Amino acid sequence: MKNIAMKGLLLASVFVFATGFSTMDKITVKGSDTLVILAQRWAERYMNKNANVSIQVTGGGSGTGISALINGTTDICNSSRPMKPSELQKLKERFGTLGVEIRCAKDGLSVYVSEANPVQALTLQQIKDIYTGKITNWKAVGGKDAKIVLYSRENNSGTYVYFKDNVLKGDDYAPSCQNLPGTAAVVNAVAKDVNGIGYGGAAYGKGIREAKVNGVAPSKATIADGSYPITRYLYMYLRSKPTGAIKQYIDWILSPEGQSVVSEVGYFPVK
Amino acid sequence: MKNIATVLALSVLLAAGARAQQGPNTESDPGKDQKTTDVKLPVKASTPALDATDEELKKKVEEMKSQLEGLDEAIKELQTDRDALKKIKVSGYLQINFEKSESMNGLSVDPYDAKDFVKSRFRVRRSRIKIMYDAGSTSMVVQGDYSNSGFTLKDAYLDFAEQSLKMFSFRLGVFNRPNYEVEYSSSQRESPERSRVIGALYPGERDLGVMVTMAPEDLFKLQLAAFNNTFAGTFSQNNPNFSSEPLYFMARATKALNLGDVGIDFGVHGRFGSVRANSARLLESDVATNGAADTTSIKVGDAVSRNWFGAEVQIYYDFLGGMKLLAEYITGSDVNVLSATPGAIRKRDFNGYYAMLVKSLGDEFQFAVKYDSYNPNSKISSDVINSTSELAINTIGLGLHNYSFPNVRLTLWYDNVTTKTNDRILKEDPKDNLLTFRAQYKF
User: Fold this and answer.
1) Annotation: CATH topology of A108-231
2) Count of alpha carbons within 13 Å of B152, Cβ hemisphere only?
3) CA distance A43 to A262
4) What are residue B309's DSSP bridge partners?
5) Which residues touch A103 (CB under 8 Å, ≥6 apart)?
6) Are B358 and B367 in contact (CB under 8 A)?
7) Residue B400 in contact with partner chain A when CB distance is under 8 A
């Protein structure tokens, strides 16, 4: 029985080794909702030029994309935040790799207030205090005497995590914060709520007022030169070093042609 | 009188309503047509019929507006409920084994009541459901195992993290003891069972206590824990030969290095404590036989140490889809009952180690090979040992995992087990090699 079992395992190993590295023309991309429009544009543009490549792009949030990367159900994960050490640990455990991080675009995170709100500027500390529940009334930041209504993204969103780590400095959001699916929903909620405040990607910031942060308004120039304080990179993650069709696609994204799409969508190129 | 007043009031209201139904006087309300453009109706001239439609539409719009506001409120309520529910996380896994042993010695029909031995069997190895309430910096976990023998509590702990330095976190309850392979869940581990040395030192993996974790960002991780032997196998079952130590302590320090394509995690851990002897006879770990004559006198209540130290390393290499090497070595001093002289206890020095190489083969397959060695009596020759369970044992295992189906892992694994023989009690290596096929579902 020992010999049969050993031979069986050996044969199975040879078979999977031989089939495990077949050429792949289908590429799946999953993750960040912030990146989903940009990722779709990249995919459309690339597929127009490369008919033999099929790229499927879905959103769902950075957390969802990272889980898919760890579970092996996506080739590329889009994320609007860096992977956490605990997530990297899972990737190490499952695949024995450290993951590959690619910075593919730059983005500014806007803080939205209603157009009817007299408050037009906030400091980072005030934003932190508002979102952690220390400041609950607009009067405390120069506005009228009204309760602040907090809108946030959902906790599987990279924007949510980035904001928590970098603006709230790791503190918990106030329990009264309402989590909405997608930055567009946050913009919509703030546009309808004169006492509302929200945050999200600059590319989504239409129809509401984007508050100045530490005296600097989010703009192409201030995000590009880093003077706007809430800027971040947008990432693509892979399980291991890219090869074949995935490598060619990544190379194209980082090429001048791929990076020109970044500007078209409203983000900022990394090259 | 009161009734008459009510009737009069109603009549006035009805008359006013009837006037409203007829529509406003166009001459006295010249701006009305302009206002209707708010709802974008192609009205050119005001007529009583059109004004009535206008009023109805306005009413409809108002109705829909209030309905939308109501829906908005309802959505906000639902969002609040959903946010609360999202803090509750349920996960679990199920492992079904088919096992085929080399002889009739190793397996029983009912794994929970080893009466009838068989060569092959199916069994439910794990059936776990874990419920977590995650409130960010605090959380609570309860995990149970549901098996043929009933429900067993596995994990029950709470975590909280201090928020000023963001460096310390605390855990209290029943949880895994700090060791690499102990904390590496069997739903993820590549070998079907833990190494023998880990199984011997940490039966059940968990115990009841408290742990402080210190993790300055990216520098290192230090775990310090104290346990009280509630779930620690032999020492928790009121063994007449020992009194459980009141507390024992554990420490583990780890560091992760990222060197581009290669990642090296390494660390050390230790366990410090003792048991109180209920016997006046003790056999030292370097004494060759375990007859009563070889024992030394001790006092009942004397502390007999159970201390050990271990070193671990995990190397990850992004080579053709990824590979890793996991290894651990533990040595120290343990205590058990002296079988030949009931009532006496035996100190024994031991050592054990394992090394496992795992290679990813594409996204769906994984190959692993593991060598595992455990010597329960490292200071005496195996030739003088009188109990088969005290002999050194080495295992080489190899297997293949498949991840083709969502949430499912299929495992085929073969363990070649070699027990050290001696002329006294074991002249031949027992036929206990084992082939395992496992289907696991995890969510």
Assistant:
1) D-Maltodextrin-Binding Protein; domain 2 (3.40.190)
2) 11
3) 12
4) B270, B331
5) A233, A234, A235, A270
6) yes
7) yes
Do the strands A26-31 and A76-79 form a parallel or antiparallel pair, or are they unpaired?
parallel
pLDDT single digits (tens) B67-117: 888 887 888 788 778 878 889 999 999 999 999 988 876 676 555 555 567
Is residue B326 within 8 A of residue B355, CB to CB? The reply is yes
Position with higher pLDDT, B338 vs B316: B316
Give the minimum alpha-carbon distance from B321 to chain A in angstroms, rounded to a whole number: 6
The predicted-structure confidence for B138-174, as pLDDT tens digits, reads as follows 999 999 998 767 788 899 999 999 988 889 999 999 9
Find all residues with CB under 8 Å of A53, minimum gap 6, and list them.
A25, A26, A27, A46, A47, A245, A249
Residue ranges per structural domain of chain A? 23-106+234-265, 108-231
Query: Which residues are CB-contacts of A43 (< 8 A; sequence separation ≥ 6)?
Result: A29, A55, A56, A57
The verdict on A49 touching B (C-beta cutoff 8 Å) is no
Distance from C-alpha of B251 to C-alpha of B147, rounded to nearest angstrom: 32
| Residue B352: CATH number of its domain | 2.40.160
CATH number of A23-106+234-265: 3.40.190.10
Question: Among residues 70-109 of chain B, which lie with CB inside 8 Å of chain A?
Answer: 76, 79-80, 83, 86, 100, 102
- Minimal CA separation from B182 to chain A, in Å: 14
Distance from CA of B422 to the nearest CA of A (A): 24
